[in-house]
Amino acid sequence: MPDQPPPNLRIREVAWGDFEGLVDTYWLLYEERETNPEIGITLFGSRPSHADEAQWFARTFERVLSGASIMRVAEVDRHVVGNCLVNRVGATADSEEAHVGDLGILVHRDFRGRGIGSALMRATLAACRGRFDVVRLSVFSANAGARRLYERLGFVPYGHLPGAVRRGGRYLDVDLMRLDLRPPHANG
Ligand SMILES: CC(C)(COP(=O)(O)OP(=O)(O)OC[C@H]1O[C@@H](n2cnc3c(N)ncnc32)[C@H](O)[C@@H]1OP(=O)(O)O)[C@@H](O)C(=O)NCCC(=O)NCCS
């Protein structure tokens, strides 16, 4: 089990000023991949530019404002050290897939294993209730820590995609997981 979260941890909605903190945390993954080729998150071949990231953040922030996405960030001593983002799968609010959310999470490498990821997920999933009926995610099959985290929060596996990720010359498998947020009488 992870340690107790730091006392100065704050989980909150994303703000426009979070851009640099989010990008710094994300860019570090490209360094991590050099030393840990198993790093459990899907990346691009090379690190995206600052301009690419600005475009991504502007689009994401607009989606949060319009209700198409939910994003929570973890802040320690006023520094953003992680985020959890759920994107509506359906392209529009009246899509037949608008009730499905796709979740991704990232914690800064220096802050992992202290319960921040768990706290982020709990807050994000609380915000998903009433907005999404189903939340899905994909996790590298080798990422046992992340899988345990998701299972503890109620996610169940529904599939396995061998060779879903091609990194360098290697193929990596991915597990698909889902969390059903429908009220019991609505299931089936
Ligand atoms: C997966 C991740 C979001 C969890 O956040 P966290 O703050 O470390 O989570 P917690 O401290 O609440 O612990 C949850 C689990 O993460 C695992 N974990 C802890 N440190 C970790 C690390 N350095 N790297 C990967 N997983 C780690 C722990 O094993 C823990 O499970 P356990 O207590 O059953 O052993 C975070 O480790 C991370 O960002 N990893 C790299 C990116 C990634 O794998 N994202 C998930 C994509 S599906």
Fraction of residues in β-strands: 25-35%
CATH superfamily assignment?
Answer: Gcn5-related N-acetyltransferase (GNAT)
CATH class: Alpha Beta
Give the CA-based shape: globular
Mean residue pLDDT: 95
**Could you say how many structural domains there are in total?**
1
Largest pleated sheet: 7 strands, mixed
User: Structural class per helix/strand content?
Assistant: alpha+beta
Question: What is the CATH topology assignment?
Answer: Aminopeptidase
CATH architecture: 3-Layer(aba) Sandwich
- State the helicity in percent bands: 25-40%
Q: What hetero molecules are bound to the protein chains? A: coenzyme A
Describe the protein in words.
The chain has 188 residues and is α+β, with helices and mostly antiparallel strands. It has helices at residues 19-35, 50-66, 116-128, 144-152; strands at 9-13, 69-76, 79-88, 100-107, 134-140, 156-167, 170-180. It has a single domain (9-186), classed as Gcn5-related N-acetyltransferase (GNAT) (Aminopeptidase). The chain has a seven-stranded mixed sheet with strand order 1-2-3-4-5-7-6, sandwiched between helices. β4 (100-107), α3 and β5 form a beta-alpha-beta unit. The mean pLDDT is 95. Bound molecules: coenzyme A.
Features of the shown structure:
188 residues; Aminopeptidase; 4 helices; globular; binds coenzyme A
Quick recap of the structure?
This protein has 188 residues and is an alpha+beta fold. It has one domain (9-186): Gcn5-related N-acetyltransferase (GNAT) (Aminopeptidase), CATH 3.40.630.30. It is built from 4 helices and 7 strands, in the order βααβββαβαββ.
